[in-house]
C-alpha cells in the first residue's frame, strides 16, 4: 500500500486484486468471500470486512489465490484523469476495427472499458 495515505482525499479508494501473500490485517475486503466445503458455504467474510490476523490465515490455508480489497487512493485528480485517458485509449485501440454501431460490440466495448477502469 502507498505510504502517502495522509495525502489522500477523504473517502477516496481503489479496488485492487492482491495475492493472499500480500494481505495484512487491517485491509478491507471489496467483495464478500465464501469458504465452502463440498459446495456448502461454511463461513463468509462480508464485503467491507476489515481483515484480522485470523482472517488472513484462513485465506492462506484455504489456498485462495487473489483477494479483491479496498486500498486508499492517494493519486491526484490529474493522475486519475491521466490513468482513465490511458485506459480508454488502450480499449479504443483494441476495438479499432470494430463497428461500435452494433449493439453487441458497443456493449462489449463498455464492459471491457469498465473492467479495465477499475
Polypeptide structure, described:
It contains three helices and five strands; from the N terminus they run ββββαβαα. It folds into two domains: 12-72, Molybdopterin biosynthesis moea protein, domain 2 (Alpha-Beta Complex); 77-116, no CATH class. The chain is extended, with a radius of gyration of 18 Å. The chain has 118 residues and is an alpha+beta fold. The longest helix has 18 residues, at 77-94.
Please outline the major beta sheet. 3 strands, antiparallel
Secondary structure: number of strands: 5
Helix content: 25-40%
Mean pLDDT: 86
Number of helices: 3
Uncertain stretches: 1-9
Q: Structural class of the secondary structure composition?
A: alpha+beta
- Named at the architecture level, the CATH assignment of the largest domain is Alpha-Beta Complex
Give the topology string: H per helix, E per strand.
Answer: EEEEHEHH
Assess the beta-strand content as a share of residues.
15-25%
Cα gyration radius (Å): 18 Å
CATH topology of the largest domain: Molybdopterin biosynthesis moea protein, domain 2
The termini sit apart by: 17 Å
Principal-axis shape equals extended
CATH top level label of the largest domain:
Alpha Beta
Strand order of the largest sheet: 1-5-2
| Oligomer kind | single chain
The domain tally reads: 2
Structure at a glance:
With 118 residues, this protein is α+β, with helices and mostly antiparallel strands. The protein has helices spanning 53-61, 77-94, 103-116, and strands at residues 13-19, 28-29, 33-37, 40-45, 66-72.
Amino acid at each position: 500500500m502507498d505510504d502517502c495515505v495522509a495525502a489522500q482525499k477523504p473517502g477516496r479508494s481503489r479496488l485492487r486484486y492482491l495475492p493472499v501473500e500480500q494481505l495484512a490485517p487491517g485491509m478491507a475486503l471489496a467483495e464478500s468471500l465464501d469458504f465452502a466445503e463440498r459446495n456448502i458455504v461454511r463461513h463468509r467474510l462480508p464485503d467491507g470486512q476489515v481483515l484480522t490476523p485470523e482472517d488472513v490465515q484462513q485465506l492462506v490455508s484455504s489456498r485462495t489465490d487473489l483477494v479483491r480489497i479496498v486500498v486508499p487512493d492517494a493519486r491526484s485528480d490529474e493522475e486519475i484523469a491521466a490513468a482513465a485517458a490511458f485506459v480508454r485509449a488502450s480499449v479504443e485501440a483494441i476495438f479499432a476495427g470494430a463497428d461500435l454501431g452494433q449493439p453487441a460490440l458497443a456493449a462489449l466495448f463498455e464492459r471491457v472499458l469498465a473492467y479495465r477502469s477499475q
